[in-house]
Design a protein that fits this description.
Length: 154
């Protein structure tokens, strides 16, 4: 296990990778949170209240994404296939703000050792977990959940 103390996981609460990040945090007892759109907006309806997210004033996903990138020490992006939409925007913002961003293809993921090396190198205490919605990449929730839980259980 890393000497770096990963203290918090944040995400925007959308279906797919965002929820996988929050659910792994719950399951492992890691504090979690993040920003979400006004009305707790997500493609499947309001984000369940069990997720301790702060609402922004707008229903806009981009503003929420920007705040989560800014409020974290680095962003872990799980993806499958092309980077597009909000996932591509997240990577662009991380670059724009000079924040470390680790891209993990769920079909050929990095090892836990590589993940922890990235965490240590960038001294990440607040990790933003991002990636595609479940609707756009069916099965991405389960893939991201399994990988993140493996990484954080080592």
């Amino acid at each position: 296990m890393s000497m770096t103390s990963l203290k918090r996981i944040i995400s925007g609460g959308q279906t797919g990778v965002d929820r996988a990040g929050l659910d792994v945090a719950f399951d492992l007892g890691i504090p979690c949170g993040g920003w979400c759109p006004k009305g707790r907006r997500a493609v499947d309806g309001p984000i369940p209240d069990k997720y301790p997210l702060k609402e922004i004033e707008a229903e806009n996903y981009n503003k929420r994404t920007q705040l989560n990138v800014q409020d974290s020490d680095g962003t872990l992006v799980f993806y499958r296939g092309e980077l597009e939409g909000g996932t591509a925007y997240t990577v662009k913002l991380a670059d724009q703000y000079g924040k470390p961003c680790l891209l993990v293809d769920v079909e050929s993921p990095v090892s836990a050792a590589e993940f922890w090396s990235w965490i240590d190198t960038h001294k990440i205490e607040v990790l933003n977990v991002a990636g595609p919605r479940e609707e756009g990449r069916p099965g991405i929730y389960q893939q991201a959940y399994k990988l993140l839980k493996t990484y954080l259980s080592k």
